Batch of 4 targets.
Target 1
Amino acid sequence: MVTDRIEINPAVMLGKPVIRGTRIPVELILRKLSEGATEADLLDAYPRLTPRRHSGCIGVCRRLTSARNHFAANGLMTTSTVRFLADESCDFAVVRALRTAGYDVLAVSEVTCRSDDSELIAQAAQEQRILLTEDKDFGWLVFVSRADSPGVILIRFPGNARKAPAQTVRQLVQENGEALSGCFTVVQPGHIRITRKPSPENLNQPPL
């Protein structure tokens, strides 16, 4: 399970994110919306979608499509393939900064009110999204729990420096891009540490 509206099951549609309870890929809905389909069109085209159960999910897809179209129309889309999953503990200013720079950032707070750790770990790995978090322990858990971990960016800034993390993370991503994949990156005031996957004997503590 990923959210109350979207799910990932390795046995369904090759593990692609689908509308919960269906075999309809989220990417299909995104494409249809970007091509001009309305919610009424989608409900008519796919009978398993119902206004009561799925209008909220279509709304999420529409917002994602609108953001993507805005970036494309204004020449803001980046050619980078690196993608991100922002934990609810991540300051949303970081999400906005990366999106403004044209990066694909999925924010947990926008798609679900709560997710178990295991669900987010699975989603990050399945979609190959680098996790953005401000929680050291959860970030390290994500990094070491799976061999295919796409990586973690741990943000450690004091509460009186809210503008700095967003600017710093955006610059970090712009300068390093795909090189951050598979790494445990710690971002602190005046200091950034990028660590590759540790050896099994060094998995107990994050490199802080």
Target 2
Amino acid sequence: MTSARALTPESPSYGVERTINGVTGDKGWSNWRSGTKNTTDTLSYDLAERTQVRHASVQFYRDGGATWPQRLRVEHRLTGGEWSTGSWVDVPAQDAGAPLIDVPLGDVDADEVRVVMEARPATHIVVSEVQIFGLRPSASPVSDLARLTVDGEPVAGFAADTTEYRVVVEGTGWPRLAAIAVDRDAAVRITQPDAGDGTGTVTVTAPDGSERTYTVTIERAGTGPQPSPEPSGPGASPSPSLVSSTSPSAVPNAGGPAASGTGSGALAATGADASIWVAPALLGAAVAAAGVVLLVRRRPRGTAE
């Protein structure tokens, strides 16, 4: 509600605006006056906008006695139209406290509501609070996607509540993401994979400002590092084998002095107890001669054979 009106407040201290202050236990509006009391009175309320009004409630206040009407009715209209008058509702007497009267209105369209009250004989009326309940449009909080595609193809396994996806594509180019939100009034912002090092995002902003972000990681098939193939065919040379030196042993002299050979069957020693590379052909000869794989210790210079 944006405003309230009444003709006969007790005083400015008890104006009708006090009936919409959110307090249900204070002395709000009062029509008390000395002498003859009003037989009827009306409180009118302007709604902020056209609303489907479901019901209205009126909380009265005990001011030294039964200071509430004997009956009331709630009326409504659209600005400039005729007032729709409801049925009278009796307000019961009670020995303690003050009554709360709720009047169903059935989701009527209105932007003005008023409460018409018929007083008890020679008794003033005090209203604590008037509440008007209704339905009106509100901003949607839905920030879900209805559809997500990569280069026009639906993402496999897509679900609105799942926000992380991995998609493998062929070729070397980056695909394009596209998306449709559930709420057509939601905003959709897309960062394509080529701008995110292969990771694309789709952010949906609902009309009420709520956001959800979906992430799509693109992997391109066949572009990762591949193992080098082993040589094959006539004349191919297998890769050399590494043998670690751990104990003193001798290798049959199959290719000349160990420290000086450079041919395909040579040994290349790197230290007194270091690792050496052994060409497979020479290693095979050593195995054939000794029946085992031998480990080699380099002999210090100047030592006799």
Target 3
Amino acid sequence: MSFFEALFFLYLLFPVINENQFLISYAMKGNISLEKIEELQTELGKFLNSDEIDFEFYEKSKKNHSEFYIRNSLGRLVFFKFDNELLSVSKELENFSCTSVNEDQFSRVKYNSDYKPVEKIVWENKNTVADSKIVSKENWEYSGEYIFSNKEDFKNKKNYEIRYNKDFLPIYVVEYCYIQNSESTEEMPLPEIKTLMKKNFFSYDNQNRLLFDEEIFYDEKKEGKEIYRKKNVYNYTGKSENADFEFYENGNLRFSIKYSNDDDFVETVYFPDGKFMETKFVNGEKIN
């Protein structure tokens, strides 16, 4: 990697996606002009010659790829390149941000002073700024033992409200979609309607092992009308490394697995009429 190629990548150090960062994309795709290259060389040269910043460049060649690092005068990583993946780290007052670029997307994650993520924005990596639309945006808030997240998926027209426990494991997820307003017309277009699609619930033991996960589906055209639910239940008996398992459909037990040890277990299928069918396994092999 040449020195000036490294200079291009330094533009990732800026915390805001701007035209200069899109020039990096052009360079990677071979679409950048000589005039722009000279312009960036001049500006980045001024930036690097600042008395406040002392950068160290080094590159490691691996068997199937190359890694390129930039560290500041304190030895902290500010830039990393792994093949076509680019990552930079910067600081804004008390906050930090990481910017990542590949051939398909730009992303930026902001962190608070405790190094916890507070915002993530993902852009499409197109040839112009105007075409590089936001794909998704997610925000996190920290309140006591819980972490709350709101994510907008602009590409798929969905919204997610998520609650995590203190270990960042999801315990409650609500999924919405945006549908066309039935009263919307070409002459008088109306905003799309945000409607409930699905809810997920999760529970864990004191070792953060999953105890159950439940998924409830709703009718998109009839707000709040439940149409189907399923639930997986896990029981850690200590007899096996695998948890005993039960699957419920609309509140009815449909399938279970119970272990005697790691290799011996019984699978049971339950039918709506109350009958059931058992299949036994010994040393991992079916015996009936």
Target 4
Amino acid sequence: MTEVVAREVYYCGVCSFPPEYCEFGVSLKRCKDWLQDNNQELFDKIYSDDALATQTSTLSIERQEKISQELAKKQLKEEAKQERELQKKLASKVLIKRIERNRRKHIISISGLEVFNIDMKKLAKTFASKFATGASVTKTADKKEEILVQGDVSDEAKEYIEKLLEEQGLNGVEVEQVDEKKKKKATAPGATPAA
């Protein structure tokens, strides 16, 4: 009987395809750079001049040019898309509102995190366990999600969110704290306020 040996497959750290298939993705240039830094032997096997010449020898010159133009166009589109997403993330801000419920009780509302691909339910659960309070995810009037946390933990929440965004490489994102107080009931004209 022959012994079955598992084949070890090496995956790209950029697009998560095997390096032989990176050319079908949209970030070939970054994939090549990553492969050259992490596995020079495989890079030489796939992208050396000899390897490229043998792969393209069966294609006509016109077809080769067309393929390279399409690939360059795809790469430019993908780079522009990633740049737009990064600018959108950096331009947005996280808003932490401290809302007064009663005289001494507060709720904080955290909104603006949906842009950063953060799982709101997991974050609410983390806040609930970290701050030992109740936390939930609700929808706002404009159909965006926000996290409501009971208690005045806005400073701690701000620190945690800044650390979370920093881990994602988004240091320039603004995290703003706002105090929102309930409006007091207006007394009728001529009536004296109760003491």
